Amino acid sequence: MSSTSTDHMDAPSDGIMRAADGTPLKKSLARALRREKLRSFLLILPLLAFIILSFLMPIADMLFRSVENGIVKETIPQTVALLKTWDPTTGEAPGEEVFAAFHEDFVKAYKDKSHTRLGLRLNYDEPGMSGLFRKTGRKVAKMEPPYKDAFIKVDKDWGKVETWAVIKRASPVLTDGYFLSALDAKRTSNGIEMLPEKERIYLFLFKRTMILSIVITVSCLLLGYPIAYLLANLPLRTSNMLMILVLLPFWTSLLVRTSAWKVLLQQQGVINDFLVWIGVIDDANRLIMINNQTGTIIAMTHILLPFMILPLFSVMKTISPSYVRAAKSLGANDWTAFWRVYFPQSVPGIGAGAILVFILSIGYYITPELVGGTSGIFISNRIAYHISTSLNWGLAAALGTILLALVMLLFYVYDKIVGIDNVKLG
Amino acid sequence: MKLKLMLLATVAGVAFAAPAVTEELPPCDNCSDSMTIVSWGGAYSKSQLKAYHEPYQALTGITIVNDESSNEAVAKLRAMNEANNITWDLVDVEGPDAVRLCDEGLAMPINADELLAPAPDGTPASEDFGDSLISDCFIPQIVFSTTFGYRTDVAAWNGKVPTSVCDVFDLENFPGKRALEKRPKKNIEWALLCDGVAKADLYDVMATDEGIDRALAKLDTIKSDVIWWSAGADTPQLLADGEIVMGSTYNGRLFSVIEEQHQPVAMLWDYQVFDFDGWIIPAGLPEDRLNRVKHYLRFATDTQRLADQAKYISYGPARASSAPLVGKHAELGIEMAPHMPTDPANMKNILVNNIDWWADYSDDVDAKFQAWLAK
Predict the structure, then answer these.
(1) A3 pLDDT higher than 70
(2) Exposure string (b/e) for B320-341, b if CB count within 10 Å is 16 or more?
(3) Of B74, B78, B243, the CB nearest to A268
(4) What's CA A70's distance to the chain center, in Å?
(5) Fewer beta carbons under 10 A from the terminal one: N or C of chain A?
């Protein structure tokens, strides 16, 4: 011990603080911290790896699909190269040289069955391409030169400029086609055009999703605020009992709750039966409350209500009752005390609940699918359709990317107006 | 008591059949001893279990794992293929999905005559299955149809009964809500037929923008009275609840509403739309699993087995040679033949799902249809 202190004494006094072993203190502290950091990094590593592998990478992969278009170039490389010099505005189909290259590519593609996959891809741009490729595939092995005539003999569409223009337009390895479709537009030989009015659907659905989600968020707030207030201000024993009533539906399966709403709301359902029985409405004019927007709003408000109540409750719990008491003792009436003193303190809870409910509801699809009919479905229903039924994953990815961008934009706007640090979950 | 007798009868039946069949069932070399079969669940899976899986398991002693994911089979197979990890051995899909999977290279092409057993009289499988072999990858099991059911107790109809599919579009004589599928397929065809398009011109008319507009205009006349369904169980439920007076769904679903649940519902077979349902083998199975699948398929798609399935569900066997063997329902004891979509009395007017046409046009028509629906 004493020798160490002697060492210290002997150390050159260059003004640098040193640790016991003589290394500068700064350095040794940094080393200790580095070890600390490394250890904590190792502790979170499993979670980080899990999130990257199971969450971020699939999302990135899915987003990339919205522009990815390697299939055309991979399946018919020589044709794509030759088509670069072909100009569709001449009004002439490509020459024999392109057809010969196309035949070679096609035979190769037919062997590994990728010609039909290409057909499906091109069918997104022009209906009929899928059938054309399937039909041609059956005959391609037996074709003899000149190939142009041979192809046209299989189907006269091969002689049309438009067919080749579609292939040429679809050749680049990255495409904006899915995003254009997702915005109800289309790339034609005259450039980008909007679809005819009556065929536009996605912009309309984005708008509807936003509006309905806002309506659902507002109705959750209107219903949830008084309940949260009640829960926060009752004695603990009573409020715990009532809390169970909030949590019980929260724990119940989504499908069960949605089906229960069907039973309640349908025209021959419990509510209509009751109203007819007490004579409010007559039997011939039963209310239509399901398979429309009303159904979606009612069922989703019920399902998402706990997500509003819980953050509100936990924020209200922290508001000291003495503030309101103080306001009243200074002469405020009940309303002023609530509005000027209590309410502003509960805003962080409203922010958290509203964001939670809104973001959950714009991504919902099961409930709208089951009770929304046609006027109550969301954009997510179309995304689900393209993922699982039409298998147009590129379009689904583009729609999903736009939805994600919209949410981020709204988040940004919210941050600018209310401030994101003004959100509290408890 | 009844159930016990029936069980005994089934056991006896299997025991009786077993020695006779073992002679025909060749040994399976280099075969895996379990397989995962994907199907639709519910009454349909049960019919396969009784008619195919249980007898096969009794004969071979292997394990069959049932997965009820046919609904999302196409998307899942594509995902499995991308991940290079095929966990399914045999998948039950509808005809259009089989064509799609074959086009995507996700299903294995087969040679029907090589893979499947000939009919008892020696007719090769390709002839016995005939038109139901709609794709190079498809191994048909059943014919099912989409048709209308209506309630028989609607007071507002004054005793009239719908006899034609066009009565669906007749709100004057047959008022009330009707259920239609939330997809363009079949609805477009019915609408055009009832708008005066001849059956022969149907798909030519549908290939034009005007044709689709015309069909949507016809559907507009009843749009405010339609509840759109997306699951096959919706229409039977809505019919039973009295929410609708008529609606389209699969004929087997209507059979169970009428014969098993005894609801006041009847079938309108006019212009039923035929579809096939069957197996596909996922592409890229390892050899031992593929051998097992082939061995199973030869057994499960033979004439007797396909006829057996009709004892449990009212879908017609895809083999011509199975039709005469269709008997009584195993539990209800009623003759199944008149409930088959393929029964001549039910087949006066039919459509066959035009899979090739829809493969080309479904994306386009669907977008138009959904845009129409949403507004």
Answers:
(1) no
(2) bbbbeebeebbeeeeebbebbb
(3) B243
(4) 24
(5) N
Bridge partners of residue B179, in order along the sequence: B227, B247
- Which residue has 């092995």 as its token pair? A141
Interval A308-333 mean pLDDT: 93
The neighbouring-strand residues paired with B335 are: B328
Q: How does residue B331 score in pLDDT terms, banded at 50, 70 and 90?
A: confident
Query: Phi/psi at A419 (nearest 5 deg)?
Result: 95, 125
**How many angstroms from the chain centroid is the CA of residue A418?**
23
Residues with Cβ within 8 Å of residue A299, at least 6 apart in sequence: A257, A258, A261, A367, A370, A371
Report d(CA B188, CA A195) in Å as an integer.
21
User: Per the structure block, which two tokens stand in for A240?
Assistant: 């715990």
| Domain A202-422, classified CATH 1.10.3720.10, yes or no | yes
DSSP state of B260: I
Residue A13, pLDDT score: 62
User: What pLDDT does residue B53 have?
Assistant: 96
- Here the contacts of B74-81 (C-beta below 8 Å, separation 24 or greater) are B74/A388, B74/A389, B74/A391, B74/B100, B74/B101, B74/B106, B75/A387, B75/A388, B75/A389, B75/A391, B77/B101, B77/B106, B77/B107, B77/B282, B78/A391, B78/B104, B78/B106, B80/B282, B81/B106, B81/B282, B81/B283, B81/B284
Give the C-alpha separation, A231 to A240, whole Å. 8
Tokens of B316: 């017609």
Residues 6+ positions from B43 with CB-CB distance below 8 Å: B252, B256, B312, B313
Mean pLDDT of chain B, nearest integer: 90
Residue that is written with structure tokens 């033979």 in the block: B302
What was the pLDDT predicted at A189? 76
Phi, psi of A357 (to 5 degrees): -65, -45
Q: How many helices (H) and strands (E) does chain A have?
A: 22, 2
B294 vs B114: CA distance, rounded Å = 10
Give all strands (DSSP E) within A68-184, no chain letters.
none
Between these two residues, B230 and B188, which has the higher pLDDT value? B188
Task: Give chain B's domains with CATH numbers.
Answer: 2-143+276-339 (3.40.190.10), 146-275+344-374 (3.40.190.10)
Among the residue ranges A10-19, A184-193, B154-163, the one predicted with the least confidence is A10-19
Nearest CA in chain A to B231: A370
Nearest-CA distance A276 → chain B (Å): 15
Q: What is the largest CA-CA distance in chain B?
A: 67
Query: B166 is written with which tokens?
Result: 């066009």
Count of alpha carbons within 13 angstroms of residue B112, beta-carbon side: 26
- Work out the pLDDT band at B6, boundaries 50, 70, 90: very low
Nearest to A373 among B228, B368, B372 (CB): B228
How far apart (Å, rounded) are the C-alpha atoms in residues A373 and A290?
7
Helix (H) or strand (E) holding A401: helix A393-417
Interface of B with A in 286-325 (CB under 8 A): none
Q: How many CB atoms lie within 10 A of CB B284?
A: 14
How far B348 CA lies from chain A's nearest CA (Å)?
30
The amino acid present at B325, given as its one-letter code, is L
The interface pTM score, or ipTM, of the predicted complex is 0.83
Helices in A254-342 by DSSP H: which ranges? Answer: 254-265, 270-278, 293-316, 321-329, 334-336
Q: How far apart are CA B256 and CA A4, in angstroms?
A: 93
Q: What is the pLDDT of residue B25?
A: 82
Residue of A nearest to B234 (CA): A370
Q: Return phi, psi of residue A194, to 5°.
A: -75, 150
- Scanning A274-313 for CB atoms below 8 A from B yields 291
User: Alpha-carbon distance A99 to A79, whole Å?
Assistant: 8
Q: How far apart are CA A383 and CA A366, in angstroms?
A: 12
* Domain ranges within chain A, ordered by starting residue: 2-65, 70-175, 202-422
